[in-house]
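Protein modeling request. Please complete all fields; requests missing the sequence field cannot be processed.
Requester role: graduate student
Desired output: 3D structure, token encoding
Chains: 1
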Amino acid sequence: MVSTVERPVRRAQRPGPVLAGMSVCTALVVGFVAAINLAVPKLAASPLHPTSSGLLWIVDAYVVVFACLVIPAGAAGDKFGRKGTLLAGLGIFAAGAVLSAVAPSVPVMLVGRAVTGLGAACVLPNCVGILIHATAPERRAHALAVWAAATGVGGVVGNVGGGSLLSIGSWRMLFVAVALVAACCLVWVATSAPVSARHARSLDLPGAALFVAAVVALLIGIIQGPEQGWGSTVVLAAFACSLVLGLVWVLVELRTPHPMLDPRLFRNPLLSSACLGMTVIFFGSFGLFYVNASLLQYGRGFSVLEAGVGIIPLTLPLLVGTRYVPALMRRAGLPATLAAAFLLTSAGLFGLSFATAMPYPAYAAALFVIGLGIMLAGPCLTAEIAAGLPVEQAGIAGGLQSATRELGSALGVAVVGTIVTAGFTHHLPAGLGHHTPVPRTVAEALALNPAEHGAIAEAFTSGADTALRAASLLTLLAGSLVVAGAARARRNAVAG
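Delivered output (496 residues):
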């Protein structure tokens, strides 16, 4: 049983600044993913000389640590205080960004990215926890919908702001700017956020370590597959380790008095389908985000700023329509709303794969359709996860919501990036395709034969198109399972 060791939480007298502050912090940690995707071409051509798998890890190191530690960080907020944990997270986030900015090599960059991911893990779930406790129950659904829309705002800020910075300076300037924004957010939170109650809760470090190890092993197998070979010892061992570590994690969590995440929670079909849905929707969207900036720059010749602005059609539904989703869900029901969300997202990804060679308005229309799907899914899934746990476990609810989202993001980047690399190497001109070693990034191929720029860009576009179609199919298939689970949960609730 969880016992409160401080006075009960005090509602914020002015919830507006709290909601705004939590939304800005959320936009920062989410927008950073969009900004780093814009920087991929510059990083590929930088003195760091990352390989294709190195580029994927530069993006995913942040997201993996974010995903794996967000639930323990939510529990830490419950135990030590959500405001204090959030402030610590912003400080760690800024420090990691500074380390990345001065990184002289890929390993140092990866350490900086991992530290930044740790900071983000402390930020996101505690934003939800502070928001839930600072908002009156009758206003909570509205506040959560606004907070969910902050992911869209983060996408806009990350793309436009990141594109602007990258167009006038190096990728190092991007990390410096992110550190400065995190410092400003720290001051904002310190002066506006209320202090919430603490709860005596175990942090379950063994469970957290096993979860991190299982996810990292899975991503090693996915990311190293194209370079090492899918039947190689390294890749097969990584997948086997992931499976074994995952099973051990379940057994440990079942026997721990206060687990990081109790596997028995997923006996609730509504909670389990909502978590799967969050993973699926962000699998598709962040797989797209990884490839989109490079696709616009390599395939269409956009500048880095134009590539940042080019993603805005996807974010428009999130900015304009998110606040209407709770009312729509009440009228149409959760299963119907989620069915529309996954159909739109899948259709948009599929259409985008054929629009890469069409005029930009066709490309923008496909992005807008994807945005409609994400707009419908985000608030529905966030509210259902929050409703699946009691309010005193708000930190765990926020951590679970964030973990499933970031895990989907990490898998999307890894799977889509892997398919892009395989397609790119397959479609390279004969001279480059038979080179030893085969170039696995556009920068590597151009360094070997700059005269083949057009053919190299076309090879990348072909690989990206294949990856988008695969993401579309996976989103549709997994989304159908989510809708079926939500419908079954609703039937059980009515019958009960």
